Amino acid sequence: MKRGIRAQLGLVMGTTSLITLLCFLLPAALVLDREAEQRAIATASLRVQAVAVLLTAQPDVLPPLPAGTTVFLPGDKIHGRPAPRDDAFVLASRGQAFVTRTSEGLVAFTTVMRGTTQSVVIRSVVPAAELRADVTSVLTRLGLVAFALLVLSVLLADRLGRRLVASARALGAGANRLSRGDLDARVTPSGPIEFHWAAQELNGLAGRISRLLADQRAESADLAHRLRTPLTALRVEAESISHPAERTRLSAVADTLTAAVDEVVHASLRSVREGANPATDLVEVATSRLDFWSVLGEDTGRSVTRDLPSVPVLVPLAREDLESLVDVLLDNVFTHTPAGTGFQVGVEVDPPALTVRDDGGGASSSARPSTGLGLLLADRLTTRTGGSFEFVPTPSGTTARATFGPVPTAAET
């Protein structure tokens, strides 16, 4: 799943902060645990030593004992907390003083002589719960501080990401306006230095595109002037010819050349007129051209069936190109079918498509897209949009179907 800048920064900052805090908390926990153990050992040792001092000073008196302390008297007598006479007791009774870890916690042993022949074993326990109490409390506080720092780092990353997102969106909006043909689009540099650089480059690109289009417009005008000057001279020469047939033929040639020059100039200025991503409503153009051809249809006794949706159907063609395509398909019907032949025109929404079907013999095989100039134009225009063109003549009629590619969205541009 794709993540935005804010999510990625939050994830990176949160992960980095978490690793850093763990690198601090884990050693801190180990140190605290070690310190707690050392304190417990010292506490247990002090307890047994204190009792030992009292018993040494007053052998006949049993002093009050600290919590968790036991005095094993000669015989089976026990003073204080009940405790078993286990292996640790046996070892202590031999005169050893030591600290050991049991299921109860840390246990300290020492031995003192009571009289000349009797030994007394002193045992003191620091429970595991008491041993870990301070560690748990400190680690809890450290954990809360770590969590607060983690949340703060994520919030700071989100704040930084918000600024970056705002700069990126402004940059993307300017690029989108430029791609849609708004050559006045400019981006105000903001955010990090890289975004400043990108905004300046985008503004420079918009300026260069404007200059290139201006140069193209000037070159097209110059081309038209240079071509029309000799054509005008040719027309003047043709009109000066006294032979009527030759004068008519040369005048027709001059008119054809003039029309071709106009078409070349018109085509060269298409990008200036349309912008980068043209989009035209197929339903509106089909309706407009059918209204235009309906006059000729009434004169020739043709019935037309319209199957047009009520919603706009945008196709990635300039209006003039789309009108030319519709005119080619309608002209094919009027040219290659006898008077009185009906036809149907339909528009589909998804995918965008235009279908012209007639009830006559249709065009001959020589008018297929491989040879017919008009149908070649239709094929070229639909292919340019990413669509396709089908022309199927049959004994009962002809079907021409132009399927168009989608109009580029803002994300695709």
UniProtKB/TrEMBL annotation:
Occurrences of domain Histidine kinase (ranges): 222-408
Membrane topology: Multi-pass membrane protein
Keywords assigned by UniProt, alphabetized: ATP-binding, Cell membrane, Kinase, Membrane, Nucleotide-binding, Phosphoprotein, Transferase, Transmembrane, Transmembrane helix, Two-component regulatory system
Pfam families membership: HAMP, HATPase_c
Main localization category: membrane
Record's keyword annotation contains Methyltransferase: no
Compartment list: Cell membrane
Catalysed conversion reaction: ATP + protein L-histidine = ADP + protein N-phospho-L-histidine
Annotated SMART domains: HAMP, HATPase_c
E.C. code: 2.7.13.3
Transmembrane segments: 9-30, 138-157
InterPro entries for this protein: 2C_sensor_his_kinase, HAMP_dom, HATPase_C_sf, HATPase_dom, His_kinase_dom, HisK_dim/P_dom, HisK_dim/P_sf
Enzyme class: transferase
Domain called HAMP: residue spans: 162-214
Domain of life, source organism: Bacteria
Protein name (database record): histidine kinase
Protein species of origin: Kribbella deserti
